[in-house]
Amino acid sequence: MIINLLDIVPGDIVCESGTGSGSLTHGLAVAVGAHGKVYTHDIEEPQVKKIETEAKAHGFSDRIIPALRDVTQAGFQVQGQCSAVFLDLPAPCLAVANAIAAFDRSRVSRLVSFSPCVEQAQDLCATLSEYDFINIRTIELIGTTYKAETPIIYDISDMEKSKSSRKTIRRNAQNEIISANESATQYNDKKTSALIASPDKQPSHAGFLTSATLLSR
Questions:
Q1: Is the pTM of this model over 0.90?
Q2: Signal peptide span per the entry (predicted)?
Q3: Domain 2-142+205-214 has CATH 3.40.50.150
């Protein structure tokens, strides 16, 4: 979803801040292709060293360029070159100005940010609006589990038929009992339908994915 929101195509130059595990960094490297670049930044040295090692091991050392850097203070590695920026920061609103400086302003640019708290997303949206971004949208991400069931659905007439059938079974001979059971089986087969149900309680941590567009100038 993040890659789609960033509108990445092969050959693009992308900036990322908040390398973390490097899983998204690898996805971005695949998306930009052999002629693209991913400049990833993190303030934790172990994360930077880890992505350097993994990039070499996975054949992406020519595409992934890591840096130990706080982009809210020092900005991004590149200026006026990238087409998309992804932020995973405690205060993404503080990185907006530096993201604009990293954009290639001759083309339309995309910014996407992940925030675990709605207040971070609200502050970011306000800042993006101040800097003339358009199409500002926030998606709430909530983990939900669904379960597929095939229940048997009865109505009042079914219950009356069931009562009558039980009386008949008690009265009649064994061959009538077998006949009634066969009829019930056929009836139940016709009264089944698919149903999607979720558990009543699903504790989960929400997240907020904000995207916006900056037009060329």
A1: no
A2: none
A3: yes
